[in-house]
Amino acid sequence: MATIYLGLGTNLGDKADNLHRAVEEINRTIGKVTSLSSFYETAPWGFCSDNTFLNAALRAETTLAPEEVLARTQQIERDLGRTHKSAGGIYTDRPIDIDILLYDGLCLTTPALTLPHPGMADRLFVLRPLAEIAPDLIHPVTGLTISELLRRACQKET
């Protein structure tokens, strides 16, 4: 059994419902959700939009390999109305986005998946909800806790 942490985001439609539906599908198809953060309203990151985001993080237990978790998160995104993934640093509005942040303490780089998520340590919209549910979790690359990463990211913002 592996412990995974996922980041969730949405900025189209009924955002709270989008997140709840994603959590239900993760629980049904990936593994038991054991913790869910509050929902955080955030500004778009990496692109301009009039639509704010609602972000959350969750912890789940799974028997699936990382690549299968990725395949299932992408299927959930499609099922909830996402028609295309961001590519080449070009981001757009979306009904749901599910990112694998951490998979146990695994470090992995494949053409399809990098673990831990390469941008998570600098993104407040990921770190705030993650710190709520796993403040003492250690990032396997930096060696810092999620709380320490959040503190550093907040200092960079000011």
Count every helix, treating DSSP H or I runs of 4 or more residues as helices: 4
* N-end to C-end Cα span: 40 Å
Beta fraction: 15-25%
Quickly give the structural class: alpha+beta
Quickly name the level 1 CATH class.
Alpha Beta
Question: How many β strands by DSSP?
Answer: 7
CATH topology, by name, is Alpha-Beta Plaits
> What best-fitting shape do the alpha-carbon axes yield?
globular
User: What is the H level of CATH, i.e. the homologous superfamily?
Assistant: 7,8-Dihydro-6-hydroxymethylpterin-pyrophosphokinase HPPK
Largest sheet: 5 strands, antiparallel
Total discrete domains: 1
Rg (C-alpha, Å)? 15 Å
Give the ordered list of helices and strands: EHEEEHEEEHH
Structure description:
With about 160 residues, this protein is of the alpha+beta class. The chain has a single domain (about 1-155), classed as 2-Layer Sandwich (Alpha-Beta Plaits). Helix content is about 30%, strand content about 25%. It contains four helices and seven strands. It has helices spanning about 15-30, 65-80, 125-135, 145-155; strands spanning about 1-10, 30-35, 40, 55-60, 95-105, 110, 115. The strands form two sheets. Strands 1, 2, 3, 4 and 5 form a five-stranded antiparallel beta sheet that branches. Helix 1 crosses helix 2 (about 65-80) and helix 3 runs antiparallel to helix 4. The longest helix is centred in the first third of the chain and has 15 residues, at about 15-30. It is globular, with a radius of gyration of 15 Å. The relative contact order is 0.20. The mean pLDDT is about 95.
